[in-house]
Amino acid sequence: MNILIIEDNVFLANRIAKVFESKIITNRVRVLYSFSEFLEELSVISSYDIVLVDLKLSDDALELWGYRIIRIIREKQVSIPIVVISGFSDIDRLRLAFEYGASDYIIKPIRLKELELRVLNWFKSYYLSNITSMGTARFYKNLKYDLDKNEFYLDEELVPLTRNNKYILSLFFSHPEKLLTESFLVERIWGDATLMVERNLRVNILRLKQALSPFGIDGWIRNIRGEGYIFSEK
């Protein structure tokens, strides 16, 4: 799970970041403190799973930049969940946030545990909604992904994986039988497609396949030369 936090209160932003950095399911957490920083990150906005945004940011005390951020993300046809965290509680501001495209709205002072539960619920329901589920587990064929434990099981046998391998496999798991381009995978794993050479995606995929080999499912990840990868039992 990749989370983008846009909050000008440094203390609060860092507290929120620590909550999600401690979650075993988290891959990346990025904190921005202003609208101008958001614009610099906009080119890779689709690499995030969830955006948390305050309405009032430090660029200009008279401008509610959070609304503009929501609108810009939606104008780019990016449908990721956007959770507003704001001290404004009047119904008109709430309504406007949802009209612009917010997915949820939490009024400050926030309870960190509530925020954590809401974000995890958005992640589970939005990204894995098309996969067979039972409780906290999701299934593809006889491969199970337990989100709370961040572990994979084949026929109930634990598949031991590194944290990095788990995240890469979770990307395939949430897009079964669909072509994932190399640039998509690099952006989701590292947040920047320009890192293609520096951090060799193919080496990472090879390591994952080697870890899956003892279970006979390494062939589920197939390279489509010049296009990307497909995760499929077929």
Question: Would you mind describing this structure in some detail?
Answer:
This protein is an alpha/beta fold and 234 residues long. It folds into two domains: 2-127, Response regulator (Rossmann fold, 3-Layer(aba) Sandwich); 132-231, Winged helix-like DNA-binding domain superfamily/Winged helix DNA-binding domain (Arc Repressor Mutant, subunit A, Orthogonal Bundle), CATH 1.10.10.10. It contains eight helices and 13 strands. The protein has helices at residues 10-21, 35-41, 65-75, 91-100, 112-127, 163-173, 182-190, 201-212; strands at residues 2-6, 28-32, 50-53, 82-86, 104-107, 132-134, 137-140, 143-146, 151-154, 157-159, 179-181, 221-224, 228-231. The chain has a five-stranded parallel β-sheet with strand order 2-1-3-4-5, sandwiched between helices. Strands 6-7-8-9-10 form a five-stranded antiparallel β-sheet, covered by helices on one side. The model has no long low-confidence stretch (mean pLDDT 88).
| Structural domain count | 2
Provide the succession of SSEs. EHEHEHEHEHEEEEEHEHHEE
**How large is the share of residues in beta strands?**
15-25%
What is the makeup of the main sheet?
Answer: 5 strands, parallel
Strand order of the largest sheet: 2-1-3-4-5
Provide the residue-averaged pLDDT.
Answer: 88
Which CATH-level-2 architecture of the largest domain? 3-Layer(aba) Sandwich
Our count of helices gives 8
What's the Cα radius of gyration? Answer: 19 Å
CATH superfamily of the largest domain: Response regulator
